[in-house]
Design brief:
four-stranded antiparallel β-sheet, 508 residues, 18 helices, 15 strands, SH3 type barrels, alpha/beta, Nucleotidyltransferase, domain 5
Length: 508
Amino acid sequence: MLSMTQVKHIRKMYFEEGKNISQISRETGHDRKTVRGYLNKEDWNKELPKVKKEAGYPKLEPFKADIDSWLMADKRARRKQRHTAKRIYDRLVEKYKDDFSCSYRTVAGYVAAKKKEIYGNKQAYLPLEHIPGEAQVDFGDADFYENGKLHSGKYINLSFPHSNKGYMQVFKGENQECLFEGLKTIFEHIGGVPTRIWFDNASTMVTKVMKGGNRSLTDDFLRFMEHYRFEAVFCNVGSANEKGNVENKVGYHRRNMLVPVPRFESISEFNKELLIRCEEDGKRKHYRKEATIEELYRDDAAALLELSKTAFDTSKYITIKTNGYGKFLLHKGLHEYSTAPKYANQYVLVKLTAFNVIVLDESYREIVCHERLYGDHKQQSMQWLPYLTQLSRRPGALKYTGIYQMLPQPVKEYMDDLSKQDKGKVLRAIAALTRKSSFEKAVETVSIALSYGATDVDSLVNLHSRLHEKALQLEPVRLPEHIPQLKRYEPKLAAYDNCLGKAGGKRC
């Protein structure tokens, strides 16, 4: 398996430099079959990692200093007198003898990646005229309310300078997953991909801006580029004006789409609405050209690249170790997420999307799903269902577990005076109520039950049904007109008193 840097290099040699497969094979040291496979590849989704990841080329660590120094010295040598991967491999074998056990394939992979870093192409010049099909991308800041909660969020903007057509999507952050998800959604909405896209130098794409303007790009962004086949162009550092169209679009979208501060229940549904509003916005006149934005956009649409038949997975996959409670930390240790008690002190596979954090087992099956947390402050997301299920199986040990201390106070109070058997029943009932609604509503039910002094399971279930389940509304029975109206019977209690008196009883 080659690195994306190596793959990018191979494809560039073929598609841009015009070299054939034999030439590429000789220059890179890779098998012709391997080269051909990467040239014909269409699906660029990232393969899911194993639970435990290792750093790239770990066996080469003791020898990388030598390799790097030889390659750097090559910059001062004639091209035909520079090291090949084979020559570097031979020198390492000669120098370290039996202490060197790395394969030629490993050396060749690292050398190709290092050469790409050292000899990367100079940045392309920005054109004076934006031709149809080219686009610019940037993020903006915006507040919004989701389910009544205020978020200091972000929104991605993609604009076409030729037509001034623009699209936007709202997110709670500005990470790689948000970037990929936003672009993917817009691509699928417009039914194609811009031929060339201008970006800034965000760390989600660029790992390093090198001397001469070269960029070292992340593997994930390279993969995204290859999947959608667009060319990426990056502005000079501190020169945001080079993508002035989208800079203006960021402000336009904020003023016209996000004022007043939007309120919605679902961010996904709101993003669908934004795409519709962006299409409506295209009906206005271009600010300079004698045509509507939509009319000019037809040229952009005609120039778009075809979408890949394979969907791109915008998620990021990481492995992480949980603590003794089955929890793990993300975002510099500020965001805490739960898994399940059985995964305490173990490595788990975590799928990160723009909106969710999904914990997977070794077979890639979902263990638990969290709404993703955003913000630079301490937060936690706790999915109680796996813990309640586990506790219900061992109610006798409840008080001796750290998990018991994590339970909300009403739940602990409710179970304090219950027998071991009843504790198990109550925990199973709370788990069932959590599945029906949410843990918060289940706890609310327990709290109200406490105030009533109701400690049995049936009372909990009935109370939850009355509080949080939609009651069936029956239509009133309407009698046919021919049925006579009966006089309402009103009992005369005095008659009962007389009967009681005659029988020798006391009057009510």
